[in-house]
Amino acid sequence: MRVELVKRKERSRKMALLSPLIAVGLTAIAAGIIFSISGHNPLSGLYKFFIEPLTQEWSFNATIAKATPLILIACGLSVCYLSNNWNIGAEGQFIVGALFGSALPILMPEFENAATLPLMMVFGMIGGALWALIPALLKTRFNTNEILTSLMLVYVASLLLDYLVRGPWRDPGGYNFPESALFSDAATLSTIPGTSISFAAPITLIVAIVLAVVLGKTLKGFEIRVMGESPRAGGFAGFSARKLTLFSFATAGALAGLAGTMEVSGALNQLLPTISPGYGFTAIIVAFLGRLNPFGIIVAGFVLALSYIGGEAVQSAMGVSNKIASVIQGLLLFFVLACDTLILYRVRFVGQRGSAGEASHV
Amino acid sequence: MKSLLKATVAAVAFAAAGSAANAADVKACYIYVGPVGDFGWSYQHDQGRLEAEKHFGDKLETAYLESVPEGPDAERAIERFAREGCNIIFTTSFGYMNPTIKVAKKFPDVKFEHATGYKTADNVATYNSKFHEGRYIIGQIAAKQSKTGVAGYIASFPIPEVVSGINAFLLGAQSVNPDFKLKVVWVNSWFDPGKEADAAKALLDQGADVITQHTDSTAPLQVAQERGAHGFGQASDMIQFAPEAQYTAIVDDWGPYYIERIQEVMDGTWESKSTWGGLAEGHVVMAPYTNLPDDVVAMAKETEAKIAGGWEPFTGPITKQDGTVAAEEGVTLDDGAILGMNWYVKGIDDKLPQ
Amino acid sequence: MFEAVLLTIITAATPLLIAAIGELVVERSGVLNLGVEGMMIMGAVVGFAVANQTGSGTLGVIAAIAAGMAMSALFGFLVLVLVTNQVATGLALTILGIGFSGLIGEAFIGIPGLKLPDLYIPGLSDIPFIGPVFFQQDALVYISFALVIAVAYFLFRTRLGLVLRSVGDNHGSAHALGYSVIRIRFAAVLFGGACAGLAGAYMSLAYTPQWVENMTAGRGWIALALVVFSSWLPLRVVIGAYLFGAVSVLNLHAQAVELDIPSQLLSSLPYLATILVLVLISANRRLTLVNTPACLGKPFVPDR
Predict the structure, then answer these.
(1) CA-CA distances (angstroms) from residue B79 to A45, B100, B259?
(2) Of the candidates B41, B20, B32, B107, the residue with the CA atom closest to the CA atom of residue B63
(3) Burial of residue A48, with CB atoms counted within 10 A of its CB: 0-12 exposed, 13-18 middle, 19 or more buried
(4) What are C50-54's contacts with CB under 8 Å, separation 24+?
(5) How far is A284 from chain C (nearest CA, A)?
(6) B308-349 pLDDT, tens per residue?
(7) C203 and B219 in contact (C-beta within 8 Å)?
(8) Per-residue pLDDT, A14
(9) How far apart are CA A163 and CA A155, in angstroms?
(10) How far is B320 from chain A (nearest CA, A)?
């Protein structure tokens, strides 16, 4: 028996819808087995993990809060990946964006008016974009591999944050503890009145919609896709790969920087030595799970956020180890990635001799 | 689809039955910054939780979340516990301070306990331990035992708690040998066994023959064991990792505090306060003194008794590194000065990172 | 003093070197596996567990290699057979490895480990300086160098090595010439997994003989950087690994002799140095284009 893939003539629409469902089903089965092996009731485990977080208002909102930065960063990354620019340093761009955004409330705390928050966001976007332009420029100028430079800059960014929070930007009234002063109200991103959802969520939604329009309906979107699929053809059409590299990195950096600023301004209200639990890396997965499509990314971001919230729920309610939660998360990703194969390919089981056996449609 | 629905209903029923079955008097919940398997900070807090569970038996239910990153994740984790019916929630990392205060505002009936911070509220207490008391004792031991007159100190981050530990260590050492030298290496991490091991090697190569660390892994002690040098355990008794190298260990024992506070919740006498316990309260415990001559053990025990009796290691004369006087003869630094310490005492072979 | 520093650098560099040489072969075949950290941590925990249970360091090392290979087989199945995205699959592999290793390791926390013995050759090991540095290391240090030489020989002096490189450079023509691209890549991925597992065993059995969660602390990522740093040349990986080890160790020494620089700046030096070297190497087009596997990260599905 041998497994063979046969390329479909076109993307299967049926599978595009079915494959995530199959993946979630497989994950549920695997998770159930893991729960039973570790001595927990599989059904209540699955319920707590995947369903309960959606049934309560606060945990639903918490899921949205967790998904927001992931979606925003992943939207930016999708521009990079669609155009064949391998930016995996969004974590660093998130941090530097947060630093630029925080500069205003920390260095000029008396600057408190309606312009404070918008200015912070603009600074954050500039900061993230500048940090992202370093690997982009190194790529266009020296042909340096951007995967590695962008990754290295993540470490540098987190050390820079660490230095500032423990040194010059430390809260003068904070007993030398490593944290900045709390931001003033004017520098705090508030929640939508009557809910506990931050304004970061609708802003992210708008960004995703705009991006979808740009990618689908404009020349820029066409350029991005053409250059990603066939740089040679794009070259004939007069598109510049270098300019596009700079553009896509700057866009990804700006959105990551915006996410960073909204996170410190809305959720944290101050700078801490670590401000991101790996959002920039998780967003890479979100971007791919969402198939580099803004709406897909929204769904993927939400599912991934749910897996964090659900992981906490089983941990606190059933005493399930948090390692089980991350194993389930890993399996979910594998199943989703594997099932996506079905969209472009048919799986065929072939006998030992390779005689053209019946193609078994899955 | 139908069967899935059935399964869901069954699961809900089970979950409801499960929570009704074990109705304890009090539910205590814990949030840890690291994995409970770090064998250091979070591990010791979890040991305290288990101690409390054992002490109260059926009357107490506990839950914990481990490896919770500081920031919005912490706020959500704390709120989850508050919503799930926890009566008292222990948040065990400095970075949980503001999230704890935020959630506490929303849940006035739940008691919150934040470790190592300085902000309190009507339903938020803080607690920490005087680890520097133990460090004074190990400083004395190091000065007695060192042949080179130089000790090495592996430090994590230049926050007051770490700085005061370094100072207490050197003051203890100087009380035995006024010319004692201390080399400090910052690894900028609470937990990276490989880097801690490298730092230990670097310090030994630079002439130190006794090392200590304010990081969480057992790696430095293992290096000491391998190189025939000596050291001290941190947070927990690490003797099995270095049977010939460990002199003693400064053990965080949170159990007594957890039992005391949970009892107060049960009795309805819990009040917000700031607890800063040390050797006297049993919150800091010295592991058995090993690999030491009798006279050094006697000296260590004497100092231990003196501190437990109320003597403060930060008692003058204390001179700062820049030569200014921090405390005159016989004057004791107040708690605020120790909790916010950002200067070195004279004799440290390092410049404090600012 | 110099001798002691050198010994510290060797232990710091060895896990990086082993993991990187494996990933180099993987990337030469045209596959980018970002899951090195996940395979390494699995090697660390399985190596520790088996050594602890059997009392044999050798069995521990073998088990660690097997664990790394099992993880890489999972990765290989996904990216080669099911043609999933390599970047995302590699990241998912790391998440899975960190979670799974924590689960396996729960029973082994707080237990002192078994340290692989150092070699001792009477006579040679006693020579001052040369003895301790060259003839008194644990076996894995020598294996790391043997691996480098073997990989260099294999890639550039054997027919199969040529085939592997051509698969990485142009899988279309390699396929047309009748080579099984998938099979060759799968073998390379397995080799990478074996090396990552071995590097993990070095962490938990030699570097710091114990098991603690996340004990690899990002070394898998550094190994990935070293591969590019070396511009896919095995001998340069040695230079890279030792340079990186040296910078991080000397950083600690610089502090102990009182150097007035923020420690965060010192800590970021290895990363900045890597970027600088990357730029210097890649600025020279002749050097990179020759060695970069042209099909790196691109999926291959045989047309029929």
Answers:
(1) 21, 9, 23
(2) B32
(3) buried
(4) C51/C113, C51/C114, C51/C205, C52/C108, C52/C111, C52/C113, C52/C114
(5) 7
(6) 998 999 998 899 988 888 888 888 998 888 888 888 998 887
(7) no
(8) 78
(9) 12
(10) 17
- Which of A142, A152, A333 comes nearest C283 by C-beta? A142
Residues of C in contact with A292 (CB under 8 A): none
> What is residue B16's predicted lDDT score, i.e. its pLDDT?
41
Cβ neighbour number for residue A36 with a 10 Å cutoff: 13
Which residues span the domain enclosing B152?
131-252+284-339
Tokens of A28: 């549920």
Tally the domains of chain C.
Answer: 1
Q: In whole angstroms, what is the distance from residue B26 CA to residue B258 CA?
A: 13
Tokens 């194969």 sit at which residue? A341
Using a pLDDT cut of 90, give the percent of chain A over it.
Answer: 35
Any idea which of A19-33, B32-46, B216-230, C102-116 has the lowest mean pLDDT?
A: C102-116
Q: Do residues B97 and B245 lie in contact, with contact meaning Cβ atoms separated by under 8 Å?
A: no
The residue of chain B with its CA nearest to that of C101 is B37
Amino acid identity, residue C96?
A: L
Query: What CATH number did the domain enclosing B78 receive?
Result: 3.40.50.2300
Whether residue B32 sits in one domain with residue B54: yes
Measured CA to CA, the distance from residue B194 to residue A357 in angstroms comes to 54
Residue C296 in any domain: the answer is no
CA C29/CA C165 separation, integer angstroms: 6
Backbone dihedral angles phi then psi of residue C14, each to the nearest 5 degrees:
-60, -50
Residue B89: the pLDDT is 97
Q: What CATH number does the domain containing C38 carry? A: 1.10.3470
Yes or no, beta carbons of A159 and C267 under 8 Å apart: yes
Rg (CA), chain B: 22
Q: Is the pLDDT of residue A357 over 50?
A: no
Count of domains observed in chain B: 2
Domains of chain A: 65-307 (1.10.3470.10)
The residues with which B275 forms a beta bridge, in sequence order, are B127
Q: Are B75 and B105 in contact (CB under 8 A)?
A: no
Q: How far is CA A219 from the centre of its chain?
A: 25
pLDDT classification of B30: cutoffs 50, 70, 90: very high
ipTM of the complex: 0.81
The single residue listed with the structure tokens 């042909």 is A143
What pLDDT, on the 0 to 100 scale, is given for residue C127?
72
Closest partner residue to B197 among C110, C208, C213, by Cβ?
C208
∠ CA C151-C152-C155, rounded to 5°: 80
CB-based contacts of C24, cutoff 8 Å, min separation 6: C151, C227, C230, C232, C234, C237
Chain C interface, mutation test: which of A131, A139, A144, most C Cβ atoms within 10 Å?
A144
For residue C235, give its domain range: 2-291
Q: Least CB-CB distance to A270: which of B83, B98, B158?
A: B98
pTM of the full predicted structure?
A: 0.83
Give kind and range of the element (H or E) at residue A5: strand A2-7
Report the C-alpha gap between B118 and A173 in whole angstroms: 11
Q: How far is CA C238 from CA B65, C14, C136, C230, in A?
A: 42, 9, 19, 8
pLDDT band at B253 (very low <50, low <70, confident <90, very high): very high
Give domain status of residue B101, yes or no: yes
d(CA C115, CA C108): 15
Dihedral of CA B237/B238/B244/B249: which sign? negative
Q: Is pLDDT at B20 greater than 60 in this prediction?
A: no
Please list the alpha-helical segments (H only) found in B84-119. 97-106
Same domain, B121 and B163: no
The label of the residue with tokens 């200015």 reads A119
For residue B14, is it within any domain?
Answer: no
pLDDT digits (tens, 9 = 90+) for C12-21: 899 999 999 9
